[in-house]
Each structure stands twice: as structure tokens, then as C-alpha cells.
TrEMBL record:
The protein's name in its UniProt record: ABC transporter permease
Subcellular location: Cell membrane
InterPro entries in alphabetical order: ABC3_permease_C, Macrolide_Exporter_MacB
Principal subcellular localisation of the protein: membrane
Family, similarity comment: Belongs to the ABC-4 integral membrane protein family.
Topology of this chain in the membrane: Multi-pass membrane protein
Listed Pfam families: FtsX
Organism expressing this protein natively: Blautia celeris
Domain ABC3 transporter permease C-terminal: 253-352, 666-780
Amino acid sequence: MDRNNNRGVVWRVAGSNLLGNKLYSFFTVLTIILAVSLISGLAMVQKSTEREKQQILNSMQHVMYMDVTDEQMKGLAEDALTEIMVPYKEGREVKEEGVKMYPFYIESHSSGIVTYTPTEGNVPEQENEIVVDRQLLKALGKEEKTGTKLEISFAEGERETFVVCGILDRDREMSTYPVYVSKAFAEKGKALRDIPYTALIRIADAGEMQMSEFAGVVNNLAVKYGIERNQVNINGTFENSLQNNSAALVLGIVGIIILFAAAVVIYSIFYLSVTGRIQQIGQLRTIGMTKKQINKMIFREGLMLSSIAVPTGVLIGNVCAYLIKPEGFAVADLFLMAFGASVFGILTVLFSVRKPAKMAGSVSPVEAVRYVGEDESGEEKDRPHRRLTARTLAGSSRNRSRKKGMLTTASLAIGGVLFMTGASYMSAWDEDEYSRMGDFENWEYIVDYVYDAHSNAQKYGITDLQMGGTLNDALKQKLESIPNVKKVYRDIFTSAVLRDGDKEYMGNVYPVTDENREELNALLDKGSVDDLKENTIIVINTRLVESLFQISLDIGKEAVLEWYNGSTQECTVQVVGVKEHGDEGRNLEDGVYIPEKRMDEMWPGMNKTASFLVTAEDYEKNGKSIEAAILNILDDYKDLDLQTLREKKIDDAAQTKKINTQVFGLTIFIIIFSIFNMVNTSISSMTARRREFAMLESIGMEQRQILKMLFFENIYLAVPNMVITLTAGGLAGYGTVWGLRKFAGAAYMHFQFPAAEHGIYALCMLLIPMLITYVCLKMQNRDSLVLRINYTD
């Protein structure tokens, strides 16, 4: 090693080591690839999700101004604060041949506010032309082509024939289909002509604003053009996007966990490699290699492996990310995420090899000659007599290699805990309960008035409809008489306007009864139900009222309550009880609560039933027949509508499938990571102990006894891993589900220990090492005993 050759010799020796132990190099590269591909894939999926979300936000309105006049729309369209204005209106929902649909007018736009663009045909221009989804035509049993005629009754007592001039291919089933009509129909058609327009608005440069600034611009536009506050509907998704989100933080935490797991695995690999090459390292020291050069050699082995593994991992991770999330995938993000993942991957490898490299550099030639592959800390006490069996030899091997075993167990357990966390999340998700959250919590059908805030909004909500009293006892009896209907609940509330100066809040008014009195009182943050009297109110979710309508309601606050009972009435009321947020259990809804007696006085003789809530006996079995029977009854009630749990499940299916697919993919990736780590550990251990097995065989040990000894060693390695996975993984899964329930409102999640998944994992951890052990031992035995005894790494 003369001076001219000194600089390159470390690289050559490092390369020679890697080429000389191809199996070790292969599994080290594989581990780095898995870690880097996982972190780069996760980062790219998250970035693609954010970009897709931004693309959606860039193609939709920031705010809706409802019930606007032509003059107001013209002013909004020409205002400098407005980027684009799109008018729209929609009619009431109808049912034709069992399929729900509604007339919908909106201009066709492919940019700004993206609405719809027919994939086949043209946008409607004539009064009788429409654009529909291909799925709608399929559901109606009609020909899926332009020119098809549909006879629809959008207006009561009037059937009209429409011609399909355009078709949309959205390739998904919907509970209710929009039927896109022309402007001529929106102006002249009986179903839409009396419905006011809603203006969809994008605010100029809104993406650069703070949330408070954005709200100020929206409200200033409303004031400028004489639009009432209750006619303003801000896009909550866009408004929330103006806040800092925690997605990057979550990704960072997940990334750190993955990189830590990879670091433990890589450290374990290099530690086993270094301890298996102590004698070789000592020989290098005897021919003049310095501690610094030995240290560099190990580091350069890590860099050489990283140069292959990191680019491959980045490529695999981004390909997977594209397959999972193609919509938001962008080349600019790819390079940024690839650079970040590469840096993290290389730093992880360098950090992982630091201690093994230092340990290798500290080995003296004398120590290397005497080294027999044992951990000093694991030496056993001498015993005068020892019974030599496969089990005791396995135990002795475990004690001598305690540190190696701890590293292997730790690296395997990390993957196991992550796997169990993902499995717990999957098993905790109750799709039925997810769909039941909200309106269908305790029932499967809701019979209510055909009322929509956009299509037939009234100042006093559903009060005008309730004046007709359609939801009466006679209808309730008809519903109760349907076979297998368990019960029909009566939901009682009406609507009124709460006014504070020039600000108005139209909300639901509920009676305080003997049934809900105690529960309401327990929920209040301030005040008491006992203080309720003639002109006093209790308000639930005052924070929402304040944020949406700028009306601050607290104990002692006075406001004007305005209602309609055939004529407009009003009185001054005082707030005597408040709950700042909504009831998480939804036992009590948001709104205004007044004494039951006072409610009867305010709406004398009016049927205040807002809906009938129908629950079935054995819904899975009888659901379809009950739904058909309700629809048959409602054919005689044109002002009533039926909402069903079945339709809600259809609308939720795409979202739940998407979330669970992503979690399932991540969980599978983690278990593959753990399995490859285990395979790597087993093969590395078998290769390093090749000479040891030959020595045992030379003193009379049979191959079946060696195999039995290795079987016990695998048991000793697998049991601690399974125990940690069982306990720590179970606790991590429980904690994840508990956190989602408590802080994310995921009441549809219930922890269930994933016993089947843990069983599969345990079998993999037991059977795969045994299979590898058997195959490796058979391959080693192909060489002669003398060759194996003289084997050096």
C-alpha cells in the first residue's frame, strides 16, 4: 500500500468486500430500497393529495350568493374583486322509474369554476335539450346515446319530453342524478322559472389571503350589492385551506418512524457484517491499514450500497405513488420529493453504519486473532457439567449473541408494531356506522318535506310547508302498518329567524319537553333550563352561529325572534342558556330551544312535525321491501321526499374504499418490510455461522440435530418479537383508534384486536425463518466438510 495507491485502496477493499459477500449486499440494498421507497412514496402520495385538493379548489367557487337578482349578478360579475361569476339554479328532486333526479342549470365551464363538459354531444341550448350521466340512462333502461328521448315530470302535473343532447361519463353510481338543462328552460320552464339564481363566485387572489381577510372581502361584496347575510354561503373547504394544515407534520412523524425502523435494520445488518469479519479486519490491520481507513472502508460500503439502493427506492416509491394517486402527480413535486427522500436515505445509512464502523476501526490484530464470534457481555458462567441437546445449544448460542438478538428483535418488532397499528385501524372501521353518522344514526328512512335551501329557499325555512300539515297522524299510521317496520318516530321542530341588529340567523326551533329537559340541562356550558320562561331561549352551538352569521349569543343577550304562523310575528327574547359547540352524540341538534307550551302559543294549531324517522326490523333482510312500500305510499304526497340509508351508503362507498385501500397498501408494505428484514437476518446469520455448523458436524452432531438447534434458535428469536408485537402493537392500535375517536370525531371506529392479522404475522415470523434455515443448511451441505471448516468470509 504505497503512497500512490493509498487513496484508492479503501474504495477497492470496500468494493471487494461487497462483491465477496453478494448475499449480504443484496439484502442490505433491499432494506434500503424498501425504506426509501416507502418514505418517498408516502411523501409523493401526500403531495399529490394536496395538489389534487388544490386543483379541485382551483376549479370551484369560493362563495355562493343565493337568491340574487339579475342586477346583483351583473354587479358581482363586473366587480374588480370577482375573478369569475357563474349563475346556477336547481329544482326539486323527482323520481322516475325508481331513479332520483333533479333539474340543474349551470353554464358549462372547463376552467375557473369547472362545471361540466359532455364527453359526447353538446351542451343544451334548446328548452327541451338536456345533458345526463350515462349511468342515469343505464338505470332508466334507455339507450346510452345522444338523441334518446326522456319523459320526465319536473313540475307537478306536467310531463315533458326532453332530448339527450350530451352525455357525461363519470362512471359511478349516484343516489341522485343531476339533469343539466338549458338557460331557456331555466328562464321559461315551470320547474325552474320561479326559482331565483345563485351566483357562484371566485374571489380574485383569494389563495393569498388570510382567513379573516377572505371573510371580510366576502362580506363586503354582500353589503355592496345588498345581499343579506343569510344568503351568503362560504365554501368551507376553501376557507379551511387558508389555515395551516397538519398534514406535513403527520407525514414527518410517519417518515421519522419509518427511517428509525430502517436505521435499526441497517445498523443490525452492518453490525452482523462487522462482527462476522473481525478476523478479516484484523488481517487488514496487520498489513498496515489504519483505524481511520477501516472506519472509512465501512462507511464507503454504506455509500456504495446507497448509490444503488436510494435511486431504485425513489423510483419504486414514485411509481407506486403514481399508481395510488395519479390525479395530483406532478413532475415538479417528483424531483423535490426524490431529492428529500435521497438525502434522508443516505443520512440514515451513514448514521446506521457509524457505530459498526467505529467498532471495526477499534479492533486490534491481537483481538481479531482470538475472536470467536461471541459477545463478551453474553458470556455464560462455567458449569462443571452441561447436558448437550439441541435446545441447550440454541440457548447457549442465544446467550453468546445476546446483542445481535436484541437488535434483530428490535428491528422486527418495529415493523410488527406498525403493521398491528394499520391492522387495528382497518378492523376498527365500521362502514355501516360510518354511514349512520348524522341523519341515520338510529333509523334507516327519513320521510320529510321536499325542501332545499338552494331551490326553494324560504325566509322561515320549512314553516310554510308545515302549514299544510302533510306529515300527519294518518300518514304515520300508514307507515307503521308496513310489514317489518319497527317504529316510526316523529321529529318535531320548525324554523324561525333570530335577529341582532342588521344580522340574521335562520335556524331550527325545538321544544323543551319532559323527555329532553334533563339531558339539555346537563349539556349546557352556561345557564339552566330552569330559567326558561315565556320570552327566553337556549342556544346550542353559539360558536357556529357567531362564525357564520356574526351574531354573538351569550347569557343575558337580547335578540329579536321572528316567525311565521300565517302572518309575520316577532318578540324580544333573552338568552338564558348556551352550549358553545354542538352535541357530539347528536342527541340534541344545533338551534334554538324554547318551552313546549310557548312553542304551541307561537304556532297555534300548526303541525310542527318536520319528518318521520322510520326504523326497520332486520334491515338487511327487509330493507328493500320496506323502501318500496314507503315509496308506494309517497306517490300520493308530492310535497314529501324519502331519504334512505341505502343511498347514503352509496354516496359513502367511494370515500371509504379510497381510505381503506391506502391504509391497506401501507400495511402490506410494512409487513413486506418486516418479512424481508427477517429473511435478511436469517440468511446473514446462517452465512456467518457456516464454519460453526461444520465444526459441530465434525465432532459428531447430525444434520437433523443442527436443524433442531436452529429451530429452537428461531423460536427464541420469534417469541420476543411476537410478544412485543402483541402488546405494544395492540396498545398502539388501541391508542390510534382512541385518538381518532376523541380528537377526530371518528365515532364509527371501535377497537377490535386484529387477532387474525396477528396470527398470520406470527406464522410468518415462525415458518419463514425455519424454511430459510432449512434451505440454507441444505445449500451449505453441498460443499465438503473440510471446505466448510476452512471457510473464511
